[in-house]
Write a structure and sequence with these properties.
This protein is an alpha/beta fold. Helices cover 38% and strands 10% of the residues. The protein is built from ten helices and five strands; from the N terminus they run αββαβαββααααααα. Strand 1 and strand 2 form a beta hairpin. Helix 3 crosses helix 4 and helix 8 packs across helix 10.
């Protein structure tokens, strides 16, 4: 903690950044929230522990944040993968953010540009955790009727609050399909068909792009396993197209690249 606070203080005092985006204590003992530190004397508010789950990259593309100046950001692995995906999708300029990476060893490390982030990620393990793999395998073993029943039950609980969209770093469209009313593709009210349409369309927009941070499910007040759906599609994209988003700057989006040697087994 002290190392993190000291590093943040030095970045602000040397004017290498104008704001540090990190975590501070929340309203409950086991909750954390985002904090924007703009003065060196306020770095004592910064904390970092296992409860710091929110993917802070979601703030980086907001105009009201970009005007603050150069940004320092406390990051986990999945936040770094978000930065890489922003680079791939031309959403963030290189060296716009200095990432303060905190690995499993606990000590902070400055990552000043995309190349440094890519090099750092190359040293970390890839793919879902053992627990996540077990969940995915369990879902894949269900027959089609069982999977359909599971997802219908999950989506029936959706209240269309769009907290998942707000928490997701890759849901950054200026105008979402849910806000289009001429024609209106997705009903405003929460109903079975509209809920299904919303969740499936969003999942497809993230297929091959989702970096698996789980912020969508964490933000959902209904506890819908959106992260599990995204994980299933991520596994499919990896198996069919060797797509592992967020590990490098190579522009190779699975659903936008045609390869003549594609097996196309997924449509048979």
């Amino acid at each position: 903690m002290e190392q993190l606070q000291q590093m943040a203080r030095e970045l602000l005092e040397r004017q290498q950044v104008q704001v540090i985006i990190g975590y501070e204590a929340g309203s409950e003992a086991n909750r954390r929230r985002a904090v924007f530190v703009r003065r060196a004397e306020d770095v004592s508010r910064l904390i970092f522990d296992d409860a710091c789950r929110q993917n802070l990259a979601t703030y980086l593309l907001k105009p009201e944040v970009l005007v603050l100046g150069k940004i320092g950001m406390v990051v986990r692995r999945n936040t770094l993968r978000s930065l890489m995906q922003y680079a791939v999708e031309n959403q963030l300029a290189d060296e716009r953010v200095i990432a303060i990476g905190i690995g499993e060893e606990g000590g902070p490390r400055l990552l000043p540009n995309f190349a440094a982030v890519e090099e750092y990620l190359a040293q970390l393990p890839r793919g879902p955790s053992a627990a996540e793999k077990a969940e995915l395998k369990k879902m894949e073993q269900l027959v089609m009727e069982q999977r359909w029943a599971f997802w219908r039950e999950e989506f029936d609980r959706c209240i269309k609050c769009y907290a998942c969209r707000a928490a997701c770093p890759l849901c950054y469209c200026n105008r979402c399909i849910t806000e289009v009313n001429q024609p209106q593709w997705i009903p405003v009210a929460s109903d079975a068909l509209g809920n299904l349409e919303w969740n499936v369309i969003r999942a497809m927009h993230l297929a091959g792009r989702c970096i698996g941070c789980g912020s969508c499910a964490d933000a959902c007040p209904q506890g819908i396993r959106i992260d599990l759906l995204n994980g299933l599609l991520a596994r499919e994209a990896q198996q069919q197209f060797a797509a592992e988003p967020g590990y490098g700057q190579r522009k190779d989006y699975a659903l936008a690249v045609f390869k003549p040697d594609d097996k196309e087994e997924f449509i048979r």
